[in-house]
Specification:
globular, 74% helix, mainly alpha, single chain, MetI-like fold
Length: 308
């Protein structure tokens, strides 16, 4: 007869006390009570709708009012058609181009406000950049249609100056102008929060050692503000990638992007909800990856200060 195994040794009293303290209601009841409402809100308005979109996207050829078939990847394979791939590339080009323009225009402004402008004027200058955000994006887009249309403000000014008129409305140029105008304040605020923490003593030391302004900029300013640059670029890229208002009002039919394509699938004449849900999941995946990069490489303190 095989010898019986010895009974398990009881846990030490210190370990038992630690586990009892972790499982006691006073340790988890407070956090659950505080996070519960937000968790329920996210579950009802984010997690469950996203799962429903995922479920609909896996039904090939699903249309409003038609019975659903089996599950498959037909809707996702349809995205690989050249006509839809061009829309994806155009959406990425709008987002990347807007990000580059906002960085090139916003960095000198943020640098001047943070390091060169008088201290008493800085808050007022920042408020001036925030003011456009207090109005609706729809109103701002309509304002740009008034400026860029053939008989608008821009061509009136060009005519007074004796310059040829421009027909930029309903072109990709108008989309870049509108997107850059809409998201430039975000870039300026984030870069300002990062440049404000720049250690200027290193710039003074570099100048004393004979470094040129260009060398000081690339070896001191850019490395110290790189997290803020990454945060600003990723934030502008995320928001401009899914923008619907500006491409619709300023771009016309030649500037179809993924947001407009999704809108047409759900509310257009085809009512192809399955294909629209697949496009939505692709956009959600792209934005999620960008947010993951933002959390990994962006300056979290800068984002927190800017949001406040």
């Amino acid at each position: 007869m095989a010898p019986s195994s010895p009974p398990p040794k009881p846990l030490p009293l210190a370990t038992q006390s630690a586990w009892a303290d972790r499982l006691s209601p006073h340790r988890w009841l407070g956090p659950v009570t505080m996070l519960g409402p937000a968790g329920v809100w996210l579950l009802l308005l984010l997690v469950i709708p996203t799962l429903l979109i995922l479920d609909i996207s896996l039904v090939p050829g699903l249309r409003l009012g038609q019975p659903s078939g089996g599950y498959g990847l037909g809707n996702y394979l349809q995205i690989l058609q050249p006509v839809y791939l061009r829309v994806m590339v155009r959406s990425l080009s709008f987002a990347l181009g807007t990000t580059v323009l906002c960085l090139l225009l916003g960095f000198p402004v943020a640098y001047w406000i943070a390091l060169m402008a008088p201290q008493r004027w800085r808050n007022l200058l920042l408020v001036g950049f925030v003011l456009p955000l207090w109005t609706s994006s729809l109103l701002r887009a309509y304002a740009w249609t008034t400026i860029l249309r053939p008989t608008g403000v821009l061509n009136s000014v060009l005519g007074l100056l004796g310059l040829p008129s421009q027909n930029w409305l309903n072109t990709p140029t108008a989309v870049f102008i509108g997107l850059t105008y809409s998201f430039l304040p975000y870039m300026v605020l984030i870069l300002y929060a990062s440049l404000e923490k720049l250690d200027t003593r290193l710039l003074e030391a570099a100048a004393d050692l004979g470094a040129t302004p260009r060398q000081s900029f690339w070896t001191i300013t850019v490395p110290q503000t790189l997290p803020g640059i990454a945060a600003g670029c990723l934030l502008v890229f995320i928001t401009s990638l899914g923008d619907f208002v500006v491409p619709t009002l300023l771009g016309g039919a030649s500037s179809m992007n993924i947001a407009r394509l999704i809108y047409n699938q759900f509310l257009g004449p085809t009512r192809a909800w399955g294909f629209g849900s697949a496009l939505s999941m692709v956009l959600i995946l792209a934005v999620s990856l960008a947010i993951a990069l933002l959390l990994k490489y962006g300056d979290r303190s800068t984002l927190t200060e800017t949001s406040q």
